[in-house]
Specification:
single chain; two-stranded antiparallel sheet; 8 helices; 9 strands; globular
Amino acid sequence: MSRYVFQYHPNPLETGAFKNDQTVICDCCGKETDVYYTGPFYSVEEVEQLCPECIASGRASEKYDGEFQDEASTDPVSDPAKLEELICRTPGYCGWQQEYWPAHCDDYCAYLGYYDWKRLEKEGLADEIEETYREDICGVEFAFAKEHLQRDSGYLFRCLHCRKHFICIDFD
C-alpha cells in the first residue's frame, strides 16, 4: 500500500479506512488485495471493497460514478481539481451521521483520525482546537463539544499548508 499516497488521508490503514485482515477481491478491478477499503462510497451500485490502486487512480469513482465524500459536506476551495482529488481519489472516513471535510488555506485538510478530548490534551492540541473550533460545521457550542467529545465522535484534520489542526464533531 505504500505506493499509494493520499494527501488528504495520509494514513488510511492507521485510521481504519483500510483494512488488512484478509485477502479480498476488489469490486472494481477484480484483483486480489490484502489491503482494502470498506468505508463510505456514494454510488448507485453497491460496492463492498476496493483496493488502494482503484481509489488512487480514480478508476473506482469513474467506473461506479461514485464519490468517497459528499461534495455538499465540504468547505469550498477555488481549485476544482482539489475537490475532484478529494471526492474521487481519496478514501473517506466513517462518521455517525454525515462526514464533513474542512478546508483551510484554500485547500482541503488531511484527515488524521478519531480523537476525543483527552487525546487532544495529551498530544498538546487542545488550545489550538479551541482557537480553530467551528461551530458552523460541528453544530454545537465549544463548551458542549469539549465536555462530550468521545473517541468515535471527533475527527481531527490538519491543514496541509499552515499545519493548523481542526476538529469536526458528530454527535448522535
